[in-house]
Queue: 2 jobs
Job 1
Amino acid sequence: MTLLEFRDVHVTYTGSRGRIPAVRGVDLKVEAGTTVGIAGESGCGKSTLAMAVLRLLPKSAEVRGEILLDGEDLLRMGWGRLRAVRWTGASIVFQGAMHSLNAVQRIGRQVAEPMLVHDKDLSPAAAAKRAEGLLERVGLPPSRTRSYPHELSGGQRQRVMIAMALACDPDLIIADEATTALDVMVQAQVLQLISGLVSERGVGMVMISHDLSVLSAVCDTAAVMYAGRIVEQGPAHEVFAQARHPYSAALGAAFPVIGDPAARLRPGGLAGDPPDPARLPEGCSFRPRCAVSVERCGEESPELLRIEGARSSACFVAQEGEPVVIG
Ligand SMILES: Nc1ncnc2c1ncn2[C@@H]1O[C@H](COP(=O)(O)OP(=O)(O)OP(=O)(O)O)[C@@H](O)[C@H]1O
C-alpha cells in the first residue's frame, strides 16, 4: 500500500538571490512497511523535500505538484486537517530539531504533550508512562524524564526529539539526518528501533542522509538527489553496490566501507561542488563534474527513466547501457 507519494513536486524559493529552484520535479513513492532513503550532498534539496511534506517550509517557498499521504493531498489540505495529520499521520525529526525543545519544560512532559493533544481519552499519567517508555527505547533512562533540555547533551536532546516523533504512533516518519549527531553506538540503537517499527508495525519511513553507510544499512529503496532532482532510484543495496548514475557512483566511491556505520566520508571522493540552483548549467546538471559525459549531456537534461527491473537513472550514458563507474 502506497503511504506517501510525491507527484511532480517542485519547490522554488524567492529571495534576494532571485528565484531558487530547490526541488525540480520529484516523483517518489513510499510503501507502508518500507524505508526509502534519500541521499545526496548538501544543498541538493533533500531537506526542502522533507519539509514540504508537512508544509513546514518558509513563506518564501512556493510548492507545486501533489504530496499524497494515504491518498490525501497534503498541499491542499485545510490547516485544521493538517494539524491533525502532523504527529499522528506523519512526523518528522530533523537535525537541529533539538533546538525546538521548550527550555522551561521537563522533557517527559514535552514527549507526552503531542499524545495528550491528539488523544483526548489519554490520561496525563498514562501519557507520562508512555513517554518514559519511549525515552527508554531511545536509550535515555527513566530518571531523565524530569530533566530540562539544558541538562542534556546535544545527542540526548536529539533522542528526545526522536521519541517525540514516535509519540503518536505515526504511519509515516521522516528522519532528516536525525541520527547524524549521535555517537555510533546510540545511532545503531536508534536505527534498530526505527527498523523495528517499519518491519513490525508497517510504518513508512523516509530517511534522509548524506551517510550512505546508514542508508544502505536500513533502506529498502534508495533515491539519489542532485540539484533538486532524483537522478537514480532503485533497491538500496543495488544502487549503492552498483550505481547506474555517475553521481551515485562517485558518492559510493567516497564511502570505502558501505554497511559499516563507523565508516566516514573519504575526502576527495568527488571533486568540485554541486551547482548553484539559481545558475544551473545547460543540459545535465551533473555534467561539469562528470567523468563519463558525452556531447548530448551538454544539450539536453536527461529524464529519470527505468533502465532495468526497478532501477531508474537520469543519465544518457546509463540509459545506453554503458558503465558509469569511474576510476
Ligand atoms: N529558506 C530558504 N530560502 C532560500 N533558499 C533556500 C532556503 N532553504 C534552502 N534553500 C536553498 O535550497 C537548496 C536546497 O537546500 P536543502 O536544505 O533542501 O538541501 P539539502 O540537500 O537538504 O542540504 P543539507 O543537507 O545541507 O540540508 C539550497 O541551494 C539552499 O541554499
Note: Residues 263-268 have pLDDT under 50 and may be disordered.
Job 2
Amino acid sequence: MQNIAVSAHGVSASIGKSPILHGIDLQLPAGRWCAIVGPNGAGKSTLLRVLAGLLPCHGQVRLQGRALGDWPARERARQLAWLGQAETGGEDLLAWDVAMLGRLPHRAWLAAPDERDQAAVTQALHATQAWELRARRLGALSGGERQRVLLARLLATQAPVLLMDEPLAHLDPPHQADWLATVRAQVAAGGTVVSVLHELNMALRADELLIIQAGRLLHHGPCDAAETHRALVAAFDGRIGVHPVQGQWIALPRELERAA
Ligand SMILES: Nc1ncnc2c1ncn2[C@@H]1O[C@H](COP(=O)(O)OP(=O)(O)OP(=O)(O)O)[C@@H](O)[C@H]1O
C-alpha cells in the first residue's frame, strides 16, 4: 500500500469571515514532489498553511496518517517543516544561527547544539550555497541570499515532509537549479516536498501537480499527463499552452506563443 505523507479530508478554511478553501480532499504520497499551482488568489498559500497546521480549518489534515492536532508539537516539528512566503524576523541573527533554528525541535530546552546539529546545519548551508554567508547578519543579505539561508533552515530540520511557499522567490537561475537538485535528492531519499510555485515551468518538473482554482482542487495528477495539462490550461482560462520542448513540458502564455 502507498505510504501517504499528508492528506486532507473535506477541508474548508476561511480568513476572517471570507471562505477561501472549499471541501478539499487530497492524498500526497511519501517520496514525491507535489507542486501547487493556480491563478493569483486561488488559495494556494492558504492550502499550504492549512496543511502545515498554521491555519485552522473544518475537516481534517493528517500527517503520516495521524491527525495534525494529535501530534505532540515537537514531534510534529521533526516530521514537518515549513518555509513561508517573504518571511521576516531574526534580522540581527547570523545566517548560521538562523539555519540552526531549524534544529530546535531536535534539542532539549536550552541545550547547546551538539555535533549532529552542527553537521545538519553545515550540510544545509552547503546544499543551498549559503555556507559563505554563515557569518553575515540576515538583515544585511540580498533577497536571494536571504532566501537561501531560510531554505537552509528548512533543510536543517531534516524533516521528511517539507512544505514551501514560493521557495524560488529571488533565486537566480543557477540557484533555482540547485533548489531543484535539492528537492530531487530529498524525494530520492524518501522525503516529501510540497511547494507552491508561480513558475509553471518549474512546477511542471514536479512529480504531481495540484491545481487550485477559486479555493477548490480542480485537478491532482502527474505532471506529464495530458489530462493534467488540460486542467492547467483550463485553470488559467485558456490563456496558456503546454508544449514539449527538449524533453520538458513548458507552459507559455498564448500571447507569447503567437509572437514566437
Ligand atoms: N489576511 C487576509 N485577509 C483577507 N483575505 C485574505 C488574506 N490573505 C489572503 N486572503 C485572500 O484569500 C484568497 C486566497 O489567498 P492565497 O494567498 O491563498 O492565494 P494564492 O493562490 O496563494 O495567491 P497568489 O498566487 O497571488 O500568491 C485571496 O482572495 C486573498 O485575497
Note: The pocket of adenosine-5'-triphosphate is lined by residues 15-16, 18, 20, 38, 40-46 (CB under 6 Å).
